Amino acid sequence: MLPRIVIPSYQRPHLIQSKTLRYLRLQGYPSDQILIFVASEDEKRLYETGVPPHLYGQIIVGQLGLKEQRNFISDYLDEDEIYISFDDDVNALKLMPGYTFYDLIRDACNVIGSRQAGLVGVLPNDDARRFKDNATTHLAHILGSFFIARNHRDLRVTCTPKEDYERSILYWLRYGHVFRSRRGGVQTKYLAGNGGIPSADRNVREEEGVQYLAQTYPTLCRRKDKGTHPDLELNWRATVE
User: Fold this and answer.
1) Percentage above 90 pLDDT, the chain
2) pTM of the model
3) Are 164 and 87 in contact (CB under 8 A)?
């Protein structure tokens, strides 16, 4: 059976069906394996009204806030379950010619099933010039917008804007590897839109996340801003002691 897909979503019932759910529909992914996690009963009713029911299996009320929702999803899923996570605004995964979404799932499940790693992702953008027929295993940023993982309830994310950096570090510390396929990347827009994360205080929370992770894991990451945007760089040369 294919892994369950989880999609945290906030105030975007129309966008999720035109982006992520549309992509999954085009791939022929079984809709009963797709779980949408929302923040309240009111939002659940909004999504039930706004999203055609043939596009998903369940809508589940979790918690408000991305890190809170991520941890809720971890508690909801079975321990050790292999699952796929998408953000609600992913246009597509752009993959090398001849390499399909199902090939990626198969390869990720083989890596995770053999316990070589617990977290698998793709490149952070869809620039085909960077695609290669291999994967890296060093400490690397596995995007929160799409990843495949083995669920461990004791691996908790503690910051919202940089939760994907934190997850990458936690899984790398657990397994000694994270796998990032270079056979494809994510087509999405970063830091755009009004949904997903309430954005009024995004910059403040980005700053807090960068400071927290740089201070907590000084040998594994360092601050490297992108213009005025607080950001991090992971230490790909790091080794597990």
Assistant:
1) 87
2) 0.94
3) no
